Amino acid sequence: GNSSTPHERSHEDEEVHKHMILVSKEVVQPIAMAFLLSLVVATLLEKAHISFLPESAVVICVGLVLGLSLKFMKHFPVALLHELNAPVVNMLLLPLIIFESGWSLRSYDFAAQFVYILFFAVVGTFIAMIVVGYLIYWTGPYHGITDMRTAFTFASLIAATDPVATLSTYSSLQVEPLLHILVFGESTVNDAVAIVVFDILNGDELFGPVDAQEEPGSSRALSAIWSGIAKKLLGSMAVGLAFGIGYTLILRIAHMKHSQSMEILFIVFSCYLTFSSAEMVDMSGIIAVLFCSILMGIYAKPHMSREGQGLASFFVKELAQMADMGIFLLVGMDFVITDSTSMHFSSWVILFLLIGRAAATFPMGFLVNSIKKVSAGRSNRTPMLLSCKHLFMMWHAGLRGGIALVLVLEMGDWVDVNNKPGTKQVLLNTTIVVIVVFLLVFGGSTQFALKSLGIQVGVEVDERYLYDRSLLNSMHAVFEKLDQYVMRPLLGAVEEDELEEYDTVGAIDSVVINRNKHRGHWFASGVSRIGSQAADSSE
User: Which of 7, 11, 32, 237 has most Cβ atoms within 10 angstroms of its Cβ?
Assistant: First the structure.
């Protein structure tokens, strides 16, 4: 039996009760207050038509105030914050954010520009990594990062763009679809590239364990990187697509459309199973969730009820917004403990990122335009080229966010071994500074830049607008054959004319399913438009 006495059990219960009170006081209560304050402040700013401060920046500022308050009262939970950062962001928040990106993707726009998106997201990201990595390494004597492995590992994680604030502005202003989908597509796909390269450089397979590191030759390193990319990227895609097919078949066989609450909860929790399963087999959970959600966004929705589609899209979007708020709240709180050494290195990194972004964006833009011109000449069609204004806005959209934060938290202990102790914390602080500065400067100036350059806004086009004008006819033919003869028979997808029933689901669904809206478009006044849309439809 239990050998503890009643007195000992009473003492243990008292300690548990004290710990719960402490967690409630120092964690739950401040965070709940910060969330509520963020919602109130963002609403007031929207009513006052103050557009230069993105909603995500509002959350960071609230987190900053919260952190300063706790620090002033000497209740700042530094150890607890460091302990919770990685698991909370990686396992709880990020799967929802990634899933929503794929679920609400405008699939026709994405397919129309897929090859060109790959140039920016894959080749462009590699260029940015190499430029930033060498610049950090060459300037090591000025900021203290003199280890090449550290320089390139950090360059790989900081190369992942996450332009939440930019895409929020694009959605609210209805920026022309070509620029919108290229910025969104690049930020979605380059996450996968950054994650794969980071995992290879940060892992022990190439460099060995911390206490017995070895310097691989350049040819071996390149070979390991490319083989690792092929293995992890393709393997993660396969895992995600397999789970997506499985979920869709379950929705079809179980006829879950008869219970809206069950099908919505099934959709939400699927991202966590996919993420954890991929990580268990040493694949990327983020990439797996992304491709799983893209497939489900196309083939699972027809197996849901009309109300379930609208409510699922709305619920997933709101959860992703809450997860985004959580990440930026943590960024704001972490910013409080940034020291002078981190600020010095951050100024160098910000400069290098601007140079690396330019070295990737403009050459890739000129290459994409050249390919489009050649394709247009063969088909006698007018290409949709990227102007210098488009390329400047793509450079301007190089914000950083949750992916960079997650990856820097995963950096190994070898960082402090190869450099001086405390370097890992400096890299974490630098990532936080970069996220905050880029968000405030570039996220806050997006609307001004669009108007100054005369980029077309207020554009409402059909989802097939770019697809029908695309020059990638052979690739589209392959996708359509695969869809027609494999995916639809396998998953029992409905025909195109039946899908129209699912897309026209009333005034509320037209707001929440509107695929032009990205998860970063927080606190939108969509509810106020529901009544007017319903009135118009009744007329």
Answer: 237
Cα–Cα separations (whole angstroms), residue 319 to 225, 517, 520: 35, 15, 12
Q: Which residues contact 445 (CB under 8 A, 6 or more apart)?
A: 52, 396
Q: How distant is the alpha carbon of residue 514 from its chain centre? A: 19
Burial degree of 413 (CB within 10 A; 0-12, 13-18, 19+):
exposed
- Can you tell me whether residue 207 is helix, strand or coil? helix
* DSSP characters over 20-37: HHHHIIIIIHHHHHHHHH
Cβ neighbours around 398 below 10 Å, total: 24
Q: How many CB atoms sit inside 10 A of residue 394's CB?
A: 25
Paired tokens of 438:
């880029």
First-last CA distance in the chain: 75
The phi-psi region of residue 308 (left if phi > 0; otherwise alpha if psi is between -120 and 50; otherwise beta) is: alpha
**Rounded Cα–Cα distance for residues 396 and 416 (Å):** 33
d(CA 341, CA 433): 12
The residue with tokens 């403009």 is 362
| Residues of the chain predicted below pLDDT 70 | 1-9, 11, 51-52, 73-86, 163, 165, 206-221, 377-381, 471-476, 493-539
pLDDT at 447: 83
- Name the residue among 398, 394, 388, 390 with its Cα closest to residue 441: 398
Q: What is the C-alpha to C-alpha distance for residues 52 and 441, in angstroms, rounded to an integer?
A: 9
Q: How far apart are CA 313 and CA 64, in angstroms?
A: 31
